[in-house]
Amino acid sequence: MLKYVDRRGTNCSKWDALEEMYGEKDLLAMWVADMDFEIAEPIRKAVGNYAANIPWGYYNPGPGYKQAFIDWEEKYHGYKLDPDWICFSPGIVAAFFWVTRMKTQPGDAVILLAPIYYPMMNAVKFNDRKLVLCDMVHDGNTYRVDYEKFEKDIVDNNAKVFILSSPHNPVGKIWTPEELKKLMEICRKHNVFVISDEIHQDFEWNGHVHVPTATLGDYDDMLITMCAVSKTFNLAACQNSFIIIPNAELRESFKKFAASISCSGGNGFGYVAVEAACREGRPWFEEVKKQIWENYCYVRDTFAKELPDVVVADLQGTYLLWLDFGKYFKTQKEIEEFMQGKCKLAFDYGNWFGAGGDDYCQFVRMNLATSLENVKEACNRMIKNLK
Fold this sequence. Notes:
- It is a single chain.
- It is built from 13 helices and 15 strands.
- It is of the alpha/beta class.
- The protein has two domains: 13-30 and 283-386, Alpha-Beta Complex (Aspartate Aminotransferase, domain 1); 57-280, Aspartate Aminotransferase, domain 2 (3-Layer(aba) Sandwich).
- The chain has a seven-stranded mixed sheet with strand order 2-10-9-8-7-3-4, with helices on both faces. It has a four-stranded antiparallel sheet with strand order 11-12-15-14.
């Protein structure tokens, strides 16, 4: 049975870094993509056995580690991997930075579809590259790409890299194969390298199916896929991700870069946890999915009844819900004063996912991977204060 855990006082960033992040600690944390559920029992047992019985020296994962992920990827996403294709990264965000530096020079342009997960933008800005944001079209309660604008932005800026979020964070969109192919063909036409971040791949809702970008065509020379089970099983602290690179030349470049910063492997706890998760964690994950979907339905139905002017995104992928309060707030200051000042809620604010200022300021991103009680409390506070 899925169990909610009160994580306050455990050095948890989501709850115990609120004062550092928002200036006050007495907030209901509905922000960063981190779950509040007890860890899956097979993972607990595997890590506990390792911690209790094996010296904590240098660790070299056996073939079972990669094979567990290979089996998962083929069974649940139809992507058959060769173990040689899989490289290590201590996290997807780190890999954004690495590949951006691998494939571009200072001043080169990197394009993203906005609104977009802000660490992707940081990988561009903090590496002294030119950030190009192609705003998507907000179409009702979902988004679509203006392909003509996307291509024009590539050409006008001579973009070298496209970082794709699939499923898309923060808007919760799962791309159709047709949409992905259009994006990839535009990138091939203009010699743009693609990073496909698929860390939220296991969260598929209401008949929508995530399709790995790499399975849609012969893109091995222009694509690196980034995956992990750290979102699926809430293992971010394990710092263990899979970077999938079928092309031997690209793979060698990635490994050489990782070696140049002395980061070619991870810690034993991470390897043990990830292997156990892929092998035995699926029943736990199915329980998590049930809870997240129940939480989503509550938010959607409650706002539809109580405050229909709040636009609740169509949740197709991820466990992050994009809420549009455009009927009520026009500036970043207004929405912050309301959500934090009046409602005592901690959200990821919309302008974090754009160019800044009041860009996307009418939105918040809500984390649904928590108890239904927390979700109800958050909704009740917003509805009460808006009314």
